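Form P-L/3: holo structure prediction, ligand protoporphyrin IX containing FE.
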Amino acid sequence: MLARAPLLVVFLLLCINAAVEQVSADLRVGFYQSTCPQAETIVRQLVQKRFNTDKSVTAALLRMHFHDCFIKGCDASILIDSTAQKQSEKAAGPNQTVRDFDLIDQIKTALEAACPSRVSCADVIALATRDAVALSGGPTYPLPTGRLDGLTSNVNDVNLPGPTMPVSSAFAQFFRPKGFTLNEMVTLLGAHTVGVAHCAFFQGTGKPDPTMDPALAGTLRRTCSASNNPTAFLDQNTSFVVDTSFYRELTVKRGVMQIDQELATDPSTSAMVAGFARSESSFRQSFAAAMVKMGSLVGKGGEVRKSCRVFNPKSPVSGGARPPPVATAPRRPPVVQPAPGRPRPPVVRPRTPVPSTRRPVVSPHPPAVKPRPPVLRPRSPAVSRAPPPKSGGKKNVPKTNAKNVSKTKGIQKKKPGKGN
Ligand code: HEM
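OUTPUT (holo model):
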């Protein structure tokens, strides 16, 4: 009997392995075709409706998606509201200025009315982001779906790179451990072709960047002298368009955040920046692929939430209730039972330890998160972020962008820290 034990262990590990592979493969284009055929249309229509009145929604969703995927995989853990007992990811510094949670609520409400407990909140973020990118002139791409919503959301898990972090550190500590190449990191940072940053993020030292284009430095100094927690566009030219103007700006020293500007000067990335600055088609292709890869970071999914802001009640039989774990394997994610209505079992991805070599980030704000070793390792890599600006102020659209401001309603004003 004892002699058979090792064989049994091997057999069990093989079974678990097979289950893991099967679940990974289940993230697929058209996942809701039979269970909620109208899902992608519902998402697209509501994103379009928001975009019609607020073009900054694309930036909001891109950042939300990134902050979701880079913590514990794309599992909508960023959407959970804090409670009196427990602070969720939303309460973390870098997430204080993540916005447009109300759009996710709207979409989820419509989806629940059409197909209750079928479409995960994690998929809502991913699909809405994909659609917003397309509306902003970016690439269109088929997006695999079938993500599940996470069962945990802890403020202390949030660990994202900061805007003053050297390019090499951001790559070594955040992107590479999740399986991304340097080129993919440069590509994903191209998301800064839209959106804004609070002045605190790029004027952290209180001194202007001596290498910055003097005209831009002057404009930013004026913008940032306002007292209401001002912001500036990350791409001065086409601030609401997903294009390669961001990279061209970097080549002429008009990057607003330090890490962005360093992409153009660091010898390991400067050629990539120059390449994207020259070729729109190469960026579009790379960006679509990198977004799919980021979106394929699978978290510790376990349920389809009824409301994106709260975990489902723990009843084992109610719709979308959290399924109990079925098996666990060393260094492999546990396999859990599928939520009712879902044709497959969710799987938890393994987390790979990351060396605690984090460098201090120069910022007026406290570091977003303490160094924490375990990090997701998806089939594709993921990203993280940095400390956020002080809360309390409202976002302003700086006056540095006459071209774009005239085309849009600008950035939605929202109180950082509220989460929605
Ligand atoms: C090293 C990696 C990154 C760093 C250090 C970083 C840092 C930042 C910072 C500090 C801001 C300003 C936030 C604020 O003031 O409210 C910001 C904004 C933004 N980030 Fe990143 N980011 C990184 C990667 C990414 C990635 C991978 C994406 C998406 C794929 C992304 C999308 C955005 C967008 C769209 C905005 C504008 C948000 C808005 O307008 O509300 N970032 N980022």
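COMMENT: Residues 5-25, 317-420 have pLDDT under 50 and may be disordered.
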